[in-house]
C-alpha cells in the first residue's frame, strides 16, 4: 500500500511562483536575490500556516542555486531549523552559534530558520544578538513569528521585516479546486468554499480540513452536505429561511426553525452570530460597490442579491441591532433559549419591506423606501 502523504506536505510550493496570496513578499524576495540585496537577517511575521516556512525554504534553495533539485528536504538545502518554542534556552542558542562557525560543505549559504522566535528567553536573545549583527558572509537568518509584538526591539531593528498576509478565501478556494482536480477528486464548489472560510486565512488548515473531509466523505467525493456535517457548521439555508420568515412577520415559523437548529446540536449563540453575519451579507448586497465584500460562491451570491431586494436597509439594521444586543446579554441570560426567541419575536415585529410593498400603491414610492 502506498503511504498517504498529507496535502499540506505534498503541495508545499517548491518555487515562489507557486506560493498563494503573498505576492508582495515573493516579488520582493525574488528581486532582492536577483539584485544581491538580500539582508542576512530577515523576520517573517504573520499568522500560522500562511507560507513563512515555505518561503524560507524556497529562499534557501534559490540562494544556493538548488532550484532544479525539486526536493523539499531541509538537509539537502543547507537549512537548519530551530523551533524556539521548545528550544528557547541560552544553551540552545549557543549550540546554534557554534554550528554557524562552520562554512557550508556544499552550496554558498547556510540558512537558519528560527521559528516562533518571540519564545526565546531574554538571555538567549542577548546571546544571539552579536551573531545576528555580524554574521559570517555565508549565513542567512530567517526569524519567524506569529507574534511580532513580542519580539524585542533590538532584534526587530536588525532585521528586514516581511509581513505575511492571511490568505483570502477566494485564493484558498482556487487552490483547493486545483488540488482536487490534481487528485482526481470530485468536489462541490460550495464545499471547498466552506473549507476555505473555516480555515480563517491559513492555507495549511484548509488543506488539513480538505484531507479530513476526503477521508470521511462517501465515495471520496467532497460534498457540501458532508462538509457541513463534518465541520459542524449550520447550513446557510437556515439563515435564508429565518430571514424570509422575519420579513413575513411569521413568528411561529421563526421559532420552529430555531427549534430545529437547537435539535441539531447548535447553540443559540452560534445562531445569533451566524444570523447577524448573514444579514450583514444581505446588507452589502444592496450596493453595487459593497457587493464585492461578499466572499461567497456565485450561486449563494444570487440568493443574497434576491433577499437584498426584499429587505429594506432600515429593516436589516434594526434586526442587526436587536441581534447585537441579544449577543451581548446572551451569557448573562438565565434562559438562553427564551432569550434568542425573544430576539426573533422582536425582529419579526419590524415592518418589513414586504409590508411596505403591500401598503404602498406606487411602484416608484416603493423603490425609494426599499433603497
Ligand atoms: N501561501 C501559501 N501558498 C501555498 N501553500 C501554502 C501557503 N501557505 C501555506 N501553504 C501550505 O501549508 C503548508 C504549511 O505552510 P508553512 O509551513 O509555510 O506555514 P507557516 O506560515 O510557516 O506556519 P507556522 O507559523 O505554523 O510554522 C505548506 O506545506 C503548504 O502546503
Main traits of this protein?
371 residues, alpha/beta, Rossmann fold, Helicase, Ruva Protein, domain 3, Zinc Finger, Delta Prime, domain 3, 3 domains, 5-stranded parallel sheet, 7% strand, transferase, nucleotidyltransferase, DNA polymerase III subunit gamma/tau
Explained architecture:
- The protein has 371 residues and is α/β, with parallel strands linked by helices.
- The protein folds into three domains: 7-163, Rossmann fold, CATH 3.40.50.300; 169-231, Orthogonal Bundle (Helicase, Ruva Protein, domain 3); 236-370, Zinc Finger, Delta Prime, domain 3 (Up-down Bundle), CATH 1.20.272.10.
- Helix content is 55%, strand content 7%.
- It is built from 18 helices and five strands.
- It has helices at 7-10, 23-34, 52-63, 90-100, 122-133, 153-156, 169-183, 189-198, 203-216, 224-231, 236-247, 251-263, 268-284, 298-310, 313-330, 336-348, 353-359, 363-370; strands at residues 41-45, 79-83, 110-115, 139-145, 160-163.
- It has a five-stranded parallel β-sheet, covered by helices on one side.
- The N and C termini lie far apart (62 Å).
- The site of adenosine-5'-triphosphate (ATP) has 22 residues, from helix 1, helix 3 and helix 9.
- Its EC number is 2.7.7.7.
- InterPro entries: AAA+_ATPase, ClpA/B, DNA_pol3_clamp-load_cplx_C, DNA_pol_III_gamma-3, DNA_pol_III_sug/sutau_N, DNA_polIII_delta, DNA_Rep/Repair_Clamp_Loader, HLD_clamp_pol_III_gamma_tau.
Amino acid at each position: 500500500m502506498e503511504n498517504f502523504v498529507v496535502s499540506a506536505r505534498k503541495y508545499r510550493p517548491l518555487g515562489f511562483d507557486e506560493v498563494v496570496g503573498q505576492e508582495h513578499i515573493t516579488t520582493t524576495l525574488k528581486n532582492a536575490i536577483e539584485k544581491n540585496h538580500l539582508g542576512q537577517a530577515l523576520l517573517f511575521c504573520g499568522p500560522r500556516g500562511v507560507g513563512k516556512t515555505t518561503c524560507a525554504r524556497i529562499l534557501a534553495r534559490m540562494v544556493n542555486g538548488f532550484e532544479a533539485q525539486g526536493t523539499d528536504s531541509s538537509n539537502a538545502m543547507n537549512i537548519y531549523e530551530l523551533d524556539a518554542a521548545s528550544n528557547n534556552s541560552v544553551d540552545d542558542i549557543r549550540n546554534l552559534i557554534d554550528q554557524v562557525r562552520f562554512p557550508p560543505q556544499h552550496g554558498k549559504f547556510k540558512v537558519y530558520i528560527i521559528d516562533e522566535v518571540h519564545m526565546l528567553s531574554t538571555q538567549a536573545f542577548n546571546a544571539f544578538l552579536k551573531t545576528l549583527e555580524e554574521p559570517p558572509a555565508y549565513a542567512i537568518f530567517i526569524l519567524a513569528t506569529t507574534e511580532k509584538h513580542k519580539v524585542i526591539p533590538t532584534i526587530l531593528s536588525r532585521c528586514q521585516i516581511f509581513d505575511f498576509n492571511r490568505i483570502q478565501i477566494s485564493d484558498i478556494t482556487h487552490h483547493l479546486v486545483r488540488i482536487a482536480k490534481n487528485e482526481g477528486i470530485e468536489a462541490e464548489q460550495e464545499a471547498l468554499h466552506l473549507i476555505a472560510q473555516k480555515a480563517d486565512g491559513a492555507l495549511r488548515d484548509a488543506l488539513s480540513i480538505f484531507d479530513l473531509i476526503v477521508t470521511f466523505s462517501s465515495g471520496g467525493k467532497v460534498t457540501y452536505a458532508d462538509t457541513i456535517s463534518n465541520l459542524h457548521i449550520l447550513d446557510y439555508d437556515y439563515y435564508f429561511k429565518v430571514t424570509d420568515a422575519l420579513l413575513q412577520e411569521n413568528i411561529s415559523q421563526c421559532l420552529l426553525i430555531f427549534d430545529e437548529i437547537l435539535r441539531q446540536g447548535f447553540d443559540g449563540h452560534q445562531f445569533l452570530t451566524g444570523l447577524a453575519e448573514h444579514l450583514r451579507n444581505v446588507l452589502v448586497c444592496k450596493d453595487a460597490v459593497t457587493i464585492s465584500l461578499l466572499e461567497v460562491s456565485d450561486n449563494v451570491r444570487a440568493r443574497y442579491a434576491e433577499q437584498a431586494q426584499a429587505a429594506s436597509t432600515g429593516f436589516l439594521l434594526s434586526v442587526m441591532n436587536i441581534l447585537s444586543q441579544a449577543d451581548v446579554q446572551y451569557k448573562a441570560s438565565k434562559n438562553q433559549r427564551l432569550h434568542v426567541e425573544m430576539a426573533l419575536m422582536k425582529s419579526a415585529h419590524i415592518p418589513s419591506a414586504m409590508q411596505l410593498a403591500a401598503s404602498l400603491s406606487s411602484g416608484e414610492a416603493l423603490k425609494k423606501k426599499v433603497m
